[in-house]
Automatic annotation (TrEMBL):
Keywords, alphabetical: Signal
Annotated NCBIfam families: LIC_10271_M23
Protein name in UniProt: LysM peptidoglycan-binding domain-containing protein
Superkingdom to which the source organism belongs: Bacteria
């Protein structure tokens, strides 16, 4: 199921509501949560509608620290629920995902007759693919049309997708910093790059120019 969700992100399909059972609006928020494989601070915080910083702080941790499978986290309730602080807003401008700026061959498009949920770069001299923002590797896979691809999860429900890789040099669960190596491009294709904020597709070209 988790794998399928990340594939849907790549395809730009709205996901989430149809993949999980309806929640009882009267159900109380649990006071604790047991970490499972693939969880992240940002994913857990989004599930309980709190900021990752608040969740980490309540548990005496920071979001830069790794989570461990089966550890139990305390979930803030009532007055413990703090509003998202200004510090949790992503201020860092995303880095260019290639070592050199390459021409965009196919632009982002929301046109119903020709949708394109990411951008396709020209295959130039840049072969090294880098993380555009710090985050966690949540999915590594192969798909026809995108070849090998990597999905990173960032703060505030942001995801970035890097496709058309010949070799992937990260593993699922790995934490990466901005400009860290993700892999090497295919010899005959340029980088496919996509950004999402939860269910919403974003224009990667604009974000690279002006930030989020």
């Amino acid at each position: 199921m988790r794998k399928f969700r990340y594939i849907l992100i790549l395809l730009g399909i709205l996901f989430g509501s149809s993949l999980s059972p309806k929640q009882n609006p009267k159900a109380e928020i649990p006071s604790s949560y047991r970490v499972t494989k693939g969880d992240s601070w940002f994913g857990i915080a989004r599930k309980f509608k709190i900021s990752p910083e608040t969740l980490a702080k309540l548990n005496g941790r920071t979001t830069s620290e790794n989570l461990y499978e089966r550890e139990v986290l305390r979930i803030p309730k009532g007055n413990e629920k703090l509003a998202v602080s200004q510090e949790s807003i992503l201020k860092e401008k995303p880095a260019f995902p290639l070592t050199q700026k390459e021409k965009v061959l196919k632009k982002y498009s929301e046109l119903t007759y020709d949708p394109h949920k990411g951008i396709q770069f020209q295959r130039g001299n840049s072969s090294l693919v880098r993380a555009s923002l710090p985050g966690k590797v949540v999915h590594v896979d192969y798909m026809d049309g995108y070849e090998n691809f990597v999905i990173l999860e960032h703060q505030n429900g942001l995801y970035s997708v890097y496709g058309n890789l010949e070799r992937i040099q990260v593993t699922e669960g790995q934490q990466v910093n901005s400009k860290d190596r993700l892999g090497i491009l295919s010899k005959d294709k340029g980088l496919y790059f996509q950004m999402n904020r939860q269910k919403q597709n974003l224009n990667p070209e604009r974000i690279l120019e002006v930030g989020i």
